[in-house]
């Protein structure tokens, strides 16, 4: 598993200014993980139930079993990059956000911060998928479509763990992307990125290849499996589309590797996207429920202690259990230090995130904890999201 090190950083920023996210020494989060892959076969047309209504969101999908194009403008009939770009560009939008902040000091007060990113239309009636970090904490969201029309958007739902969000505009004749199947992609396949780099160059098209179909990386303490591409990605591309040579949406752009190595070499051509199968699974949950309900949870809030403090050793502690969750039912308690889960040592939230990401609701995991200087083992049944939990 790769992590950012040396002088490298994952740039998941999306606009101007390019602000840096800061981590906290003590992390309080709800333990849960992403279920990968969209349930059911992707084929023809499929519908997703809209949250709070009986209507449906129709998403265009590729024909089942269709492999991504590995070449462009070949004798087999594949289209040129320019032909594909012309078809897919109307499904990618520019996103602009505003939020109010507070400054301190002698001339303290409030100020308005503006940022920009990208999004992809997934239904003709205005549902748009993007990154959580593009719209996080936004007080207003404006969307510009390819034809120059401006819309005010509302937030449908957001999920920080998968870095996926869904917004909606009031429209009924938009051009949705054709949803591909990210499980079919291979290294060397054609990759086309459309987005809004720098927040000022909406509709920009770059292309390259799929460098790796799956990379396990840690971004913002979350363990993720991402698609790697050498297609050029810059700030503002976040939330935009990664398409294959047939024009099928196979990923949502969310990060790039930037900086230099320890030898001083400049890092270039390393970008990442969330596979569309898992992204659409999250999007469906957000549209239907406003949050993700199908993610397995241990049922605890944790606190990470970075160094020994008084009588407490450095490690991952349970701060509280969620009522009705598997941890509470198994007998776990506040101040228990988690030693391992299913034999995997736990020294950080990222460790736990990685273990739970491969589990499903209903699975039983063995949790070893330390309590009052003694180790104990508990069998915990993983549950889905609980109504009374404080999950984001």
Descriptive account of the structure:
With 392 residues, the chain is mainly beta. The protein folds into two domains: 37-103 and 116-289, Thrombin, subunit H (Beta Barrel), CATH 2.40.10; 297-381, Pdz3 Domain, CATH 2.30.42. It has helices at residues 81-88, 132-135, 276-289, 326-330, 349-357; strands at residues 7-11, 28-32, 45-49, 56-60, 92-103, 109-121, 127-130, 140-144, 150-159, 164-168, 178-179, 190-195, 204-219, 222-229, 241-243, 248-260, 271-275, 297-305, 315-321, 337-341, 344-345, 364-371, 374-381. The strands form four sheets. Strands 2, 18, 19, 20, 21, 22 and 23 form a seven-stranded antiparallel beta sheet that branches. A six-stranded antiparallel β-barrel has the order 12-13-14-17-16-15. Strands 5-6-7-10-9-8 form a six-stranded antiparallel β-barrel. β5 and β6 form a beta hairpin. The model is unreliable at 1-10, 13-58, 61-77 and 388-392 (pLDDT under 50).
Main structural class: mainly beta
Counting DSSP E segments of at least 2 residues, the number of strands comes to: 23
The CATH architecture of the largest domain can be given as Beta Barrel
What's the domain count? 2
Helices and strands, in order, run as EEEEHEEEHEEEEEEEEEEHEEHEEHEE
Major sheet, described briefly?
7 strands, antiparallel
Which term fits the overall shape?
globular
Helix content: 10-25%
CATH-assigned fold name of the largest domain: Thrombin, subunit H
* Sequence stretches where pLDDT stays below 50 over 5 or more residues: 1-10, 13-58, 61-77, 388-392
Discrete helix count? 5
Radius of gyration: 22 Å
